[in-house]
Amino acid sequence: MIWFTEYQTKNTGLTVRVKEAKRFNSQYQEILLLDTYEYGKMLVLDGAVQTTERDEFIYHEMLAHPALIKHPNPERILVIGGGDGGTVREVLKHQSVKEVHLCEIDGEVIKVSKEYLPTISNMLDNEKVKIFVEDGNKFLDERKGYYDVILLDLSDPVGPAEALFRRAFYQKVKNALKEGGILTAQTESPFLQTEYFKSAVLEIKEVFKNVGTYLAFIPTYPAGMWSFTMASDDIDIFENSNMERIDKLNTKYFCDKIYISLFSLPKFVSELIT
Ligand code: SAM
Fold first, then answer.
1. ipTM confidence
2. Which residue's CA is minimally distant from atom 12 of ligand 1?
3. Which residues form the active site (predicted)?
4. With 258 labelled, which of 24, 134, 138, 272 sits at a CA distance of 20 to 30 A?
């Protein structure tokens, strides 16, 4: 019997029983593709679970849809990280979207996802999608005032994603947005990765005027409690705008009730970031 454990802290972890394991090496990280009994296929980078067939819809819907609904007319979207393709798939559900750029540092993640995770990666070959295999930090140096929405779908702030959780990078994101543009970033687990969470949200607050954090329940992420942070300088992200668009998205987790109460945080989480 094979079991895999992700050590989420020194003292706790997530353990799953595995039918089959495949290992790939890239210049950036160790890539594992596990076929698990409970969660279907699971993508693991440097020992950390990135996505699983069974619960991926929660993360990808909650990263993509709130910002795309709040934006009056999202046409040009950038996803940084997200080489599995799940966020791109959700973005393309919005009819106004004309162009999606995906900037993923590791081409091997895209290759493995296309081969073994077809239900997640199936929109990566869509004609509206352009893929850049580059470091997101460098990529943004050349883009100014171009995107309506930028989604940061990054691995943990260690290894290749480290610099992309800092103020200097959030400033580049702001410069790459058009007027009225919106950022949403995955900002880690408030419960088990408290310092990563606090630091990411507080750095975003240093750069943007309107900042709101929201949560989703994601079974295979640390403590099951995951956070996302939305930011904009000129859009009031706290208004429940464009709700009539939600029904057309064919989602399984995100819905109008979640949208209305999006930024309602448990008290201990609010206290960490105020
Ligand atoms: N849902 C995931 C999570 O929260 O763990 C994120 C999934 S996605 C697979 C993360 C991707 O970010 C990885 O494929 C990784 O290669 C990519 N990444 C890390 N650092 C990056 C960088 N500097 N530029 C672009 N992509 C990066």
1. 0.98
2. 81
3. 153
4. 272
